[in-house]
Amino acid sequence: MTRTPSDSRPDPSGSTPPGEETPRPGHSHRHPRAARHRHTRRLSRPRLPRAKRAPPGLPAGIEYHELTATSPDTPTRILCTDYSPERIETQEVGDVAAFLAIHRPSWTQVRWIHVEGLQDQSALRTLAEKYKLHPLAIEDILDRGQRPKLEDYPGEDDLPGRLFVMAHGIQLIENQLVSEPTGFFLGRTTLLSFQHSTCPAIGEIRKRLYSPRSRVRQNDASFLLYVLIDAMVDRYFPILDASSERLESAEDEVLTRPDGLSLHAMHEIKRDLVMIRRSAWPMRELVAQLQRDHHECLSEIAQTYFRDVYDHCVQIIDLIETYREIASAVTETYVSIVSNRTNDIMKVLTVIGTIFIPLTFLAGVYGMNLEMPETHWAPAYPLFWVACLVIAGIMLWRFKRGGWL
């Protein structure tokens, strides 16, 4: 039985179409701006990560025969790039079996095979059989929720040693953060990379390879692995810059005109930072292993350059923690402002109620069902109003002097 991960889950609302809100009694006259904000936030908010596990009792890993051909909506695309310091060729592979049956050109020093789209597993099976990929690593490739990791599969007899690397990039698609896992199999002269969808960083590196002066062309396959991981890590910085701008805008809005939408914006920013941290933190551990652990497929030059990638990972983690602290501080500021505003309102209402306590008493006594004083003395009614105004004035003066107003 083939086990393929899926991010789809049944709609808990039953017959309600995606993107539509089920009407509830008593909520038909909501504020249109708040309703639109809730609707947009619900569509753009990423789902929380879920741990996907195989049913109990199944063996670990995915064997070659379990990889079956399907008819996916997105076809699998395979690009092969052969290069050396003097020459480079890129071709799109249609028939994988026929392509692998032909030996690579004699001038090739590094072969990079990149696979985009893993819904159709027939191509993955052919590559796995050709390059003797480990079943545990195949399972990790198909699992979109697999965290960044480094696994060493040493060679045995005629089986070459492989270094398996699972790295995570991040993209901003339609104002929604998407984590894109990429699996790498590193050999001595071959690098295999597998992705579920297209990543802009991969295309950028392929363009760099066509420059004759590119340092990538002068080094081995492990240096290409460094360049790809470095490009994936560097794409965290634009996402963090966008989060910083959103955080500054939300902070200004909280300080000038705090409302419920400001609090929702802060929660969205904090949620995005948590999603970024979930990918960036294990990436730092991965790069630390790559620059520290020795492997037959890793060159010393590549390990030296991985130090720079590690510095970038540390900077990313520092920025994430800083932004999270600022977001928490702004949220606390919002709560304090709302609490102070509520206290001011309650203070004004208390002062008004306190002023009217003696006036209510006088009006109650004066208005009792007795003989009215003005029937015998005409100035009694104006004197009543003068007494009320004097009492109210004295109380306001006392509140002002006491700092209550």
UniProtKB/TrEMBL annotation:
Compositional bias per record (Basic residues), positions renumbered to this chain: 26-53
Basic and acidic residues composition-biased segments: 1-10
UniProt xrefs under CDD domains: TmCorA-like_1 (cd12828)
Domain of life of the source: Bacteria
Entry function: Mediates influx of magnesium ions.
The keyword Cell membrane is annotated on this UniProt entry: yes
Matches recorded under InterPro entries: CorA_cytoplasmic_dom, CorA_TM1_TM2, Mg/Co-transport_prot_CorA, MgTranspt_CorA/ZnTranspt_ZntB
Main location as per UniProt: membrane
Record region (Disordered): 1-73
GO molecular function ontology, one term from the record: cobalt ion binding
Subcellular location: Cell membrane; Membrane
UniProt-listed SUPFAM superfamilies: CorA soluble domain-like, Magnesium transport protein CorA, transmembrane region
Keyword annotations of the record: Cell membrane, Ion transport, Magnesium, Membrane, Transmembrane, Transmembrane helix, Transport
Family: Belongs to the CorA metal ion transporter (MIT) (TC 1.A.35) family.
Bilayer topology: Multi-pass membrane protein
Protein name according to UniProt: Magnesium transport protein CorA
Cellular component per GO, a single term: plasma membrane
Transmembrane segments: 348-368, 380-399
Phylogenetic lineage: Bacteria, Pseudomonadati, Pseudomonadota, Gammaproteobacteria, Chromatiales
